[in-house]
Inverse folding.
């Protein structure tokens, strides 16, 4: 029995799914490396960043491969946008409020833009994984 060749749409869906898994793996490697839970060589950082970059570009190009992939992409990007806006607005506010209650007036300790990159990517992957696990987007 010979296998039927994949259509262009099926190839795009497969590329998107593989890129999602690669990007998630690269992101986890970056988080582990940045938190220093495990001692990893410096090359892991470079490989993870390059893998994440290529995988996200692939995910973006194939985001409309079919309705299911498009719905998962929308769930991830919508959640990432809302979480990012909330972090950029409420993180400095919360820090200032707590510093005011405690009487600590030494300036801004937490820069919201420092945390925003990891928050954006993490919220995208969490929403993406949740939509995939739920089965409906």
């Amino acid at each position: 029995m010979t296998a039927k060749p994949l259509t262009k749409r099926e190839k795009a869906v497969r590329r998107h799914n593989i890129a999602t898994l690669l990007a998630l793996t690269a992101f986890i490697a970056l988080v582990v490396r940045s938190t220093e839970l495990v001692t990893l060589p410096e090359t892991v950082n470079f490989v993870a960043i390059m893998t994440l970059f290529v995988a996200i570009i692939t995910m973006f190009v194939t985001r409309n491969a079919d309705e299911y992939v498009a719905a998962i992409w929308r769930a991830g990007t919508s959640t990432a946008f809302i979480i990012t806006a909330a972090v950029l607005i409420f993180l400095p506010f919360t820090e200032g409020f707590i510093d005011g209650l405690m009487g600590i007036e030494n300036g801004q300790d937490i820069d919201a833009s420092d945390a925003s990159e990891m928050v954006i990517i993490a919220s995208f992957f969490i929403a993406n994984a949740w939509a995939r696990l739920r089965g409906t987007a």
About this structure: The chain is about 80% helix and 0% strand. The mean pLDDT is 85.
